[in-house]
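hiii, so i know i said id send this last week but things got crazy w the move. better late than never?? heres the sequnce for the chain we talked about at the cafe, plus the structure i predicted for it. fair warning i was half asleep when i ran it
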Amino acid sequence: MNKFRWCFIGAGSLAKTVAFQLNRSGRHEIVSCYTRNYEKGVEFAKKYGGKAYKTPEEAITAEGVDGVYIVTPHNAHYRYVKQALELNKPVFCEKSFTVTAEETDELIALAREKDLYLCEAMWTWFSPSANQTKKWIDENKLGKIHSADFTYHVNIINGAERVRDPKRAGGALLDITIYPVTYAYRLWGIPQKIESCGNVQNGIDISEEIVFTYPDFKVNISASIADFKGFEKMSIKGENGEIKATLYHAMNGVTFKKSMFKKETFKGNGPKMNSYLDEFDTVAKEIREGLKESRMVPLKATSDVMHLLDEIRAQMGLNYNNLE
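okay and structure toks below
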Protein backbone atom coordinates (compact mmCIF):
# COMPACT_ATOMS: atom_id res chain seq x y z
CA MET A 1 0.00 0.00 0.00
CA ASN A 2 1.17 3.54 -0.71
CA LYS A 3 2.51 5.59 2.16
CA PHE A 4 0.05 7.84 3.96
CA ARG A 5 1.08 11.43 3.28
CA TRP A 6 0.96 14.04 6.02
CA CYS A 7 0.97 17.80 6.32
CA PHE A 8 2.55 18.87 9.63
CA ILE A 9 1.35 22.11 11.20
CA GLY A 10 4.03 22.72 13.82
CA ALA A 11 7.71 21.78 13.85
CA GLY A 12 8.70 21.68 17.53
CA SER A 13 10.20 18.87 19.60
CA LEU A 14 7.10 16.66 19.54
CA ALA A 15 6.73 17.12 15.78
CA LYS A 16 10.33 15.99 15.34
CA THR A 17 9.85 12.90 17.51
CA VAL A 18 6.72 11.90 15.62
CA ALA A 19 8.29 12.62 12.23
CA PHE A 20 11.27 10.41 13.05
CA GLN A 21 9.02 7.49 13.97
CA LEU A 22 6.78 7.95 10.93
CA ASN A 23 9.70 8.04 8.51
CA ARG A 24 11.36 5.03 10.10
CA SER A 25 8.15 2.99 9.76
CA GLY A 26 8.10 3.19 5.98
CA ARG A 27 4.31 3.49 6.11
CA HIS A 28 4.04 7.27 6.32
CA GLU A 29 5.53 10.26 4.55
CA ILE A 30 5.65 13.97 5.35
CA VAL A 31 4.95 15.98 2.20
CA SER A 32 4.45 19.49 3.62
CA CYS A 33 4.87 21.50 6.77
CA TYR A 34 4.13 24.93 8.17
CA THR A 35 5.34 26.77 11.23
CA ARG A 36 5.28 30.48 11.97
CA ASN A 37 9.09 30.58 11.75
CA TYR A 38 9.64 29.75 8.09
CA GLU A 39 13.37 29.02 8.53
CA LYS A 40 12.53 26.53 11.26
CA GLY A 41 10.09 24.89 8.86
CA VAL A 42 12.79 24.65 6.18
CA GLU A 43 15.12 22.92 8.64
CA PHE A 44 12.35 20.51 9.63
CA ALA A 45 11.59 19.67 5.98
CA LYS A 46 15.27 19.09 5.15
CA LYS A 47 15.57 16.58 7.97
CA TYR A 48 12.18 14.85 7.83
CA GLY A 49 11.00 15.33 4.28
CA GLY A 50 8.46 17.35 2.36
CA LYS A 51 8.44 21.04 1.64
CA ALA A 52 8.09 23.97 4.02
CA TYR A 53 5.51 26.60 3.13
CA LYS A 54 5.13 30.20 4.22
CA THR A 55 1.38 29.91 4.87
CA PRO A 56 -0.73 27.17 6.46
CA GLU A 57 -3.08 27.26 3.44
CA GLU A 58 -0.25 26.34 1.09
CA ALA A 59 0.93 23.50 3.32
CA ILE A 60 -2.55 22.08 3.86
CA THR A 61 -3.45 22.14 0.16
CA ALA A 62 -0.05 20.96 -1.08
CA GLU A 63 -0.18 18.21 -3.67
CA GLY A 64 -0.54 14.73 -2.22
CA VAL A 65 -1.65 15.60 1.34
CA ASP A 66 -3.87 12.80 2.73
CA GLY A 67 -4.24 14.20 6.25
CA VAL A 68 -3.23 17.15 8.41
CA TYR A 69 -1.48 16.70 11.76
CA ILE A 70 -1.76 19.68 14.13
CA VAL A 71 1.13 19.77 16.63
CA THR A 72 1.31 23.38 17.83
CA PRO A 73 0.82 24.87 21.33
CA HIS A 74 -2.74 24.44 22.65
CA ASN A 75 -3.93 27.94 21.88
CA ALA A 76 -3.35 27.49 18.13
CA HIS A 77 -5.18 24.16 17.72
CA TYR A 78 -8.60 25.68 17.14
CA ARG A 79 -7.63 27.99 14.31
CA TYR A 80 -5.52 25.44 12.43
CA VAL A 81 -8.04 22.61 12.78
CA LYS A 82 -10.76 24.95 11.54
CA GLN A 83 -8.60 26.07 8.64
CA ALA A 84 -7.79 22.51 7.58
CA LEU A 85 -11.44 21.44 7.76
CA GLU A 86 -12.51 24.47 5.73
CA LEU A 87 -9.94 23.40 3.14
CA ASN A 88 -11.57 19.94 3.08
CA LYS A 89 -8.78 17.93 4.71
CA PRO A 90 -9.05 15.20 7.38
CA VAL A 91 -7.44 16.30 10.65
CA PHE A 92 -5.54 14.60 13.46
CA CYS A 93 -4.96 17.12 16.28
CA GLU A 94 -2.76 16.80 19.36
CA LYS A 95 -4.15 17.04 22.87
CA SER A 96 -5.48 19.09 24.38
CA PHE A 97 -7.79 19.17 21.40
CA THR A 98 -8.57 22.84 21.97
CA VAL A 99 -8.50 25.22 24.93
CA THR A 100 -12.23 25.11 25.72
CA ALA A 101 -15.15 22.75 25.19
CA GLU A 102 -16.94 25.43 23.18
CA GLU A 103 -14.11 25.45 20.63
CA THR A 104 -14.09 21.65 20.48
CA ASP A 105 -17.83 21.42 19.92
CA GLU A 106 -17.66 24.03 17.16
CA LEU A 107 -14.96 22.04 15.34
CA ILE A 108 -16.89 18.79 15.70
CA ALA A 109 -19.95 20.47 14.20
CA LEU A 110 -17.84 21.79 11.32
CA ALA A 111 -16.31 18.36 10.63
CA ARG A 112 -19.77 16.80 10.51
CA GLU A 113 -21.07 19.57 8.27
CA LYS A 114 -18.12 19.07 5.90
CA ASP A 115 -18.32 15.25 6.23
CA LEU A 116 -14.64 15.05 7.16
CA TYR A 117 -12.60 12.87 9.50
CA LEU A 118 -11.55 14.51 12.78
CA CYS A 119 -9.67 12.90 15.66
CA GLU A 120 -7.75 13.76 18.82
CA ALA A 121 -4.15 12.57 19.05
CA MET A 122 -3.54 11.16 22.51
CA TRP A 123 -1.68 8.12 23.82
CA THR A 124 -4.32 7.33 26.45
CA TRP A 125 -6.76 6.32 23.74
CA PHE A 126 -4.39 4.33 21.58
CA SER A 127 -1.73 2.71 23.78
CA PRO A 128 -1.80 -1.09 24.19
CA SER A 129 -1.34 -0.83 27.97
CA ALA A 130 -4.26 1.61 28.36
CA ASN A 131 -6.36 -0.69 26.19
CA GLN A 132 -5.39 -3.63 28.41
CA THR A 133 -6.40 -1.71 31.53
CA LYS A 134 -9.80 -1.00 30.02
CA LYS A 135 -10.14 -4.67 29.04
CA TRP A 136 -9.47 -5.78 32.62
CA ILE A 137 -11.98 -3.25 33.97
CA ASP A 138 -14.62 -4.23 31.39
CA GLU A 139 -14.08 -7.90 32.25
CA ASN A 140 -14.70 -7.05 35.93
CA LYS A 141 -11.34 -8.55 36.82
CA LEU A 142 -11.07 -6.37 39.91
CA GLY A 143 -14.60 -7.07 41.06
CA LYS A 144 -16.12 -4.18 42.98
CA ILE A 145 -13.80 -1.19 42.68
CA HIS A 146 -12.83 0.46 45.95
CA SER A 147 -10.70 3.40 44.77
CA ALA A 148 -8.52 4.79 42.00
CA ASP A 149 -5.54 7.09 42.39
CA PHE A 150 -3.61 8.90 39.69
CA THR A 151 -0.58 11.11 40.27
CA TYR A 152 1.31 13.08 37.65
CA HIS A 153 4.01 15.26 39.19
CA VAL A 154 6.85 16.41 36.98
CA ASN A 155 9.06 19.48 37.34
CA ILE A 156 8.83 21.02 33.86
CA ILE A 157 7.85 24.58 34.69
CA ASN A 158 11.30 25.84 33.75
CA GLY A 159 11.46 23.72 30.61
CA ALA A 160 9.59 24.58 27.43
CA GLU A 161 8.40 28.18 27.54
CA ARG A 162 4.87 27.29 26.40
CA VAL A 163 4.31 25.37 29.67
CA ARG A 164 4.46 28.57 31.74
CA ASP A 165 3.01 30.94 29.15
CA PRO A 166 -0.60 32.01 29.91
CA LYS A 167 -0.91 33.40 26.38
CA ARG A 168 -0.49 29.85 25.07
CA ALA A 169 -2.77 28.20 27.65
CA GLY A 170 0.18 26.95 29.64
CA GLY A 171 -0.04 25.17 32.97
CA ALA A 172 -0.66 21.67 34.25
CA LEU A 173 -4.28 21.10 33.22
CA LEU A 174 -4.00 20.95 29.44
CA ASP A 175 -0.46 19.61 29.40
CA ILE A 176 -0.43 16.73 31.91
CA THR A 177 -3.61 16.60 34.03
CA ILE A 178 -5.57 15.84 30.89
CA TYR A 179 -4.01 12.34 30.92
CA PRO A 180 -5.48 11.07 34.22
CA VAL A 181 -8.75 12.91 33.53
CA THR A 182 -9.02 11.15 30.18
CA TYR A 183 -7.96 7.83 31.71
CA ALA A 184 -10.73 8.03 34.33
CA TYR A 185 -13.33 9.13 31.79
CA ARG A 186 -12.40 6.31 29.44
CA LEU A 187 -12.79 3.70 32.16
CA TRP A 188 -15.88 5.01 33.97
CA GLY A 189 -17.43 7.88 32.03
CA ILE A 190 -18.61 11.21 33.38
CA PRO A 191 -18.47 11.34 37.20
CA GLN A 192 -21.46 12.19 39.36
CA LYS A 193 -19.51 14.92 41.09
CA ILE A 194 -16.31 16.87 40.46
CA GLU A 195 -14.33 18.60 43.21
CA SER A 196 -11.13 20.42 42.35
CA CYS A 197 -8.76 23.03 43.68
CA GLY A 198 -5.51 24.32 42.30
CA ASN A 199 -2.52 26.57 42.73
CA VAL A 200 -2.96 29.28 40.10
CA GLN A 201 -0.11 31.75 39.66
CA ASN A 202 0.54 34.32 36.93
CA GLY A 203 -2.32 33.04 34.82
CA ILE A 204 -1.40 29.35 34.82
CA ASP A 205 -2.21 26.41 37.07
CA ILE A 206 0.92 25.08 38.77
CA SER A 207 -0.86 22.11 40.34
CA GLU A 208 -4.30 20.71 41.12
CA GLU A 209 -6.06 18.16 43.27
CA ILE A 210 -9.21 16.62 41.76
CA VAL A 211 -11.78 14.14 43.04
CA PHE A 212 -14.21 12.39 40.70
CA THR A 213 -17.10 10.73 42.53
CA TYR A 214 -18.72 7.67 40.96
CA PRO A 215 -21.60 5.64 42.48
CA ASP A 216 -19.40 3.23 44.46
CA PHE A 217 -15.92 4.79 44.61
CA LYS A 218 -13.83 7.90 44.09
CA VAL A 219 -10.99 8.73 41.73
CA ASN A 220 -8.26 10.94 43.20
CA ILE A 221 -6.07 12.90 40.80
CA SER A 222 -3.01 14.89 41.83
CA ALA A 223 -0.91 16.77 39.28
CA SER A 224 1.89 19.33 39.28
CA ILE A 225 4.35 20.86 36.84
CA ALA A 226 6.63 22.11 39.63
CA ASP A 227 7.69 19.03 41.64
CA PHE A 228 8.19 15.26 41.58
CA LYS A 229 6.34 14.55 44.85
CA GLY A 230 3.88 12.06 43.46
CA PHE A 231 5.82 11.09 40.33
CA GLU A 232 3.49 9.45 37.77
CA LYS A 233 1.61 6.45 39.11
CA MET A 234 -1.77 4.78 38.67
CA SER A 235 -3.44 2.48 41.19
CA ILE A 236 -6.94 1.02 40.82
CA LYS A 237 -7.96 -1.13 43.77
CA GLY A 238 -10.83 -3.59 43.91
CA GLU A 239 -12.05 -6.55 45.88
CA ASN A 240 -9.97 -8.94 43.74
CA GLY A 241 -6.69 -7.06 43.55
CA GLU A 242 -5.04 -3.96 42.10
CA ILE A 243 -4.13 -2.64 38.66
CA LYS A 244 -0.89 -0.66 38.77
CA ALA A 245 1.27 1.27 36.35
CA THR A 246 4.13 3.75 36.53
CA LEU A 247 4.47 6.43 33.84
CA TYR A 248 1.02 5.25 32.81
CA HIS A 249 0.49 7.89 30.13
CA ALA A 250 3.42 6.65 28.04
CA MET A 251 4.85 3.34 29.27
CA ASN A 252 3.79 0.25 27.39
CA GLY A 253 3.09 -1.92 30.42
CA VAL A 254 0.59 -2.46 33.24
CA THR A 255 0.25 -5.01 36.06
CA PHE A 256 -2.72 -6.75 37.65
CA LYS A 257 -1.68 -7.77 41.15
CA LYS A 258 -4.00 -10.32 42.73
CA SER A 259 -1.86 -10.98 45.79
CA MET A 260 1.69 -10.50 47.02
CA PHE A 261 2.81 -13.58 45.10
CA LYS A 262 0.43 -13.62 42.17
CA LYS A 263 0.43 -11.02 39.44
CA GLU A 264 -0.12 -10.68 35.72
CA THR A 265 1.97 -8.19 33.76
CA PHE A 266 1.02 -6.96 30.32
CA LYS A 267 3.70 -5.61 28.00
CA GLY A 268 2.78 -4.39 24.56
CA ASN A 269 4.80 -5.18 21.48
CA GLY A 270 7.78 -3.02 20.68
CA PRO A 271 9.60 -0.56 22.95
CA LYS A 272 8.90 0.10 26.61
CA MET A 273 7.55 3.52 25.73
CA ASN A 274 4.45 3.73 23.57
CA SER A 275 5.07 4.38 19.90
CA TYR A 276 3.26 7.16 18.09
CA LEU A 277 2.76 4.66 15.29
CA ASP A 278 -0.12 3.09 17.23
CA GLU A 279 -2.00 6.33 16.66
CA PHE A 280 -0.89 7.19 13.15
CA ASP A 281 -1.36 3.70 11.71
CA THR A 282 -4.89 3.59 13.13
CA VAL A 283 -5.84 7.05 11.88
CA ALA A 284 -4.39 6.48 8.41
CA LYS A 285 -6.36 3.24 8.12
CA GLU A 286 -9.59 4.88 9.30
CA ILE A 287 -9.25 7.79 6.89
CA ARG A 288 -8.63 5.40 4.01
CA GLU A 289 -11.70 3.42 5.03
CA GLY A 290 -13.76 6.59 4.72
CA LEU A 291 -14.61 6.95 8.41
CA LYS A 292 -15.51 10.39 9.71
CA GLU A 293 -14.42 9.80 13.29
CA SER A 294 -12.18 7.30 15.01
CA ARG A 295 -13.35 4.00 16.44
CA MET A 296 -10.74 4.50 19.16
CA VAL A 297 -11.56 8.12 20.03
CA PRO A 298 -15.21 9.02 19.43
CA LEU A 299 -15.75 12.75 19.00
CA LYS A 300 -18.25 12.68 21.87
CA ALA A 301 -15.47 11.46 24.14
CA THR A 302 -13.18 14.32 23.10
CA SER A 303 -16.02 16.75 23.79
CA ASP A 304 -16.88 15.17 27.14
CA VAL A 305 -13.28 15.40 28.36
CA MET A 306 -13.06 19.05 27.33
CA HIS A 307 -16.25 19.77 29.29
CA LEU A 308 -14.72 18.05 32.34
CA LEU A 309 -11.60 20.19 31.98
CA ASP A 310 -13.76 23.32 31.71
CA GLU A 311 -15.49 22.46 34.99
CA ILE A 312 -12.20 21.75 36.75
CA ARG A 313 -10.81 25.03 35.49
CA ALA A 314 -13.88 26.95 36.62
CA GLN A 315 -13.62 25.50 40.12
CA MET A 316 -9.96 26.55 40.31
CA GLY A 317 -10.70 30.05 39.10
CA LEU A 318 -8.46 29.62 36.07
CA ASN A 319 -9.37 31.46 32.87
CA TYR A 320 -7.77 31.79 29.47
CA ASN A 321 -8.71 35.37 28.69
CA ASN A 322 -5.38 36.57 27.31
CA LEU A 323 -4.50 34.03 24.65
CA GLU A 324 -2.46 34.93 21.61
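btw The chain has a mean pLDDT of 95. thought thatd interest u
miss u guys!!
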